[in-house]
Amino acid sequence: MTRTILRPRRTARAAALGALVIAVAAGCGGTDQGEDGAAPADEPGTSQEGGGDSDGGGSESSAPADDDATDDAASDGGGDAPGEQEPAADALPADADLATEELPISAERAVEIATETVGGGDLVQVEIDYDQHVGAWEWEIELVMDGSQHELDIDATTGEVTEHDVDEDDDQDPVVDVTSPMTPSEAIEIAVDQEPGRVSGWELDSEDGSIRYEIEIDRADGGDIDVEIDVETGDIRIDD
């Protein structure tokens, strides 16, 4: 009887132990699987795969790239844009001496602006002086094209065309050139050598078939004088 009772207990114990071993084994196996499933982020081999996700455009890797691109764009675009803009030109004062100071818009540039505005034409007159009414230095350009005479006022500081009048051309004046055979600076130098003073303006046009500069000079001791210079011969005439 005792053996009969003990045998089942051993069998039950053995069965229980076997079940425990199986359960432990199963539990370890499940843990290994779980660890294998969760370990990729921790194991070195899996970390390399995670790096692949970074290379492949994961959210964590793309954000720094976007930030860098944004920083570069801000540096290249926002930082450089103000520097690329040309500073506003300073207007010359009303008492400026054109013999020693340069206007922001040169004579050559004023003629270009006028020609672009009209769409062509031949230059027959150029004049620069300070317009007291508008309080600015202004170019007065006359162009002839297709039987019409275009008179343009151009701000010598900004290059803005402030007035453009068109009339019929009956005069057929000779064409003039501010670059040849005599430039404005050359004419001003000749005039100041003859009559020292402040150059307050000048004009290039034709009279009686000859092309000449007329340089306006304010004398230091008061009064003003005009020095006319023939661009072809260099002859000088003083009108006071």
Description of the molecule:
This protein is α+β, with helices and mostly antiparallel strands and 240 residues long. Helix content is 40%, strand content 28%. It is built from six helices and eight strands. An eight-stranded antiparallel β-sheet has the order 4-3-2-1-5-6-7-8, covered by helices on one side. The protein is globular and about 45 Å long. Residues 104-163, 182-236 form the PepSY domain. Residues 1-25 form the signal peptide. Residues 48-59 have a biased composition (Gly residues).
Q: What is the terminal separation in angstroms? A: 157 Å
Number of helices: 6
CATH topology heading of the largest domain = Nuclear Transport Factor 2, Chain: A
Mean pLDDT: 76
Number of domains: 2
Main structural class: alpha+beta
Low-confidence stretches: 1-26, 28-86
* Share in β-strands: 25-35%
CATH architecture of the largest domain: Roll
Helix content: 40-55%
CATH class of the largest domain: Alpha Beta
SSE order: HHHHHEEEEHEEEE
Using only C-alpha atoms, the radius of gyration works out to: 46 Å
Please summarize the sheet with the most strands.
Answer: 8 strands, antiparallel
Shape category: globular
- Strand ordering within the main sheet: 4-3-2-1-5-6-7-8
How many β-strands, per DSSP?
A: 8
